[in-house]
Amino acid sequence: QVQLVESGGRLVQAGDSLRLSCIASGITLSSYTMAWFRQAPGAEREFVVADDNWNIHRTYYIDSVKGRFTVSRDNAKNTVHLQMNSLKPEDTAVYYCAARRWGGTTSQIMRPSPDYLYWGQGTQVTVSS
């Protein structure tokens, strides 16, 4: 049985930092493209960042988080992290990790789709001003 479990979300103030974790069981994350999505109150789910190690290592970030968020892997612990610095109120959302097989195009990787086979239940990040 495959399971992704996110943790690390909490209430913080603008400018603070958080480190989210996504721990997998039932799959080996080093064989998957791993992404973080988020869903703000009243909004649709959106792509945030992805780490793709197929062929060559690539990372993908939306413009609003470049320079602030960093995705990384700890393969020994079968875990993916999202380091979030300089948090802003607009970062407030439920953050989800998701896994898909290697080989997607940039546009495919940067959108939620059934090709993301596994999803966590999310962790709430709230940034106050």
Question: What structural keywords apply?
Answer:
129 residues; 3% helix; 51% strand; 1 helix; 4-stranded antiparallel sheet; 7-stranded mixed sheet; mainly beta; 11 strands
Tell me about this structure.
- The chain has 129 residues and is mainly β.
- The chain has one helix at residues 106-109; strands at 3-7, 11-13, 18-25, 32-39, 46-52, 58-61, 69-74, 79-84, 93-101, 116-119, 123-128.
- Helices cover 3% and strands 51% of the residues.
- The strands form 2 sheets. Strands 2, 4, 5, 6, 9, 10 and 11 form a 7-stranded mixed beta sheet that branches. The protein has a 4-stranded antiparallel beta sheet with strand order 1-3-8-7, with no helix packed on it.
- The termini are far apart.
- The model has no long low-confidence stretch (mean pLDDT 95).
Provide the fold topology.
Elements: E1 3-7, E2 11-13, E3 18-25, E4 32-39, E5 46-52, E6 58-61, E7 69-74, E8 79-84, E9 93-101, H1 106-109, E10 116-119, E11 123-128
Parallel strand pairs: 2-11
Antiparallel strand pairs: 1-3, 3-8, 4-5, 4-9, 5-6, 7-8, 9-10, 9-11
- Secondary structure tally: strands: 11
Helix-residue proportion: under 10%
Major beta sheet summary: 7 strands, mixed
What Rg, in angstroms, do the CA atoms define?
A: 14 Å
Please mark out the parts with pLDDT under 50 across 5 or more consecutive residues, or reply none: none
Strand content: over 45%
* Secondary-structure-derived class: mainly beta
Mean pLDDT: 95
Number of helices: 1
How widely separated are the two ends? 40 Å
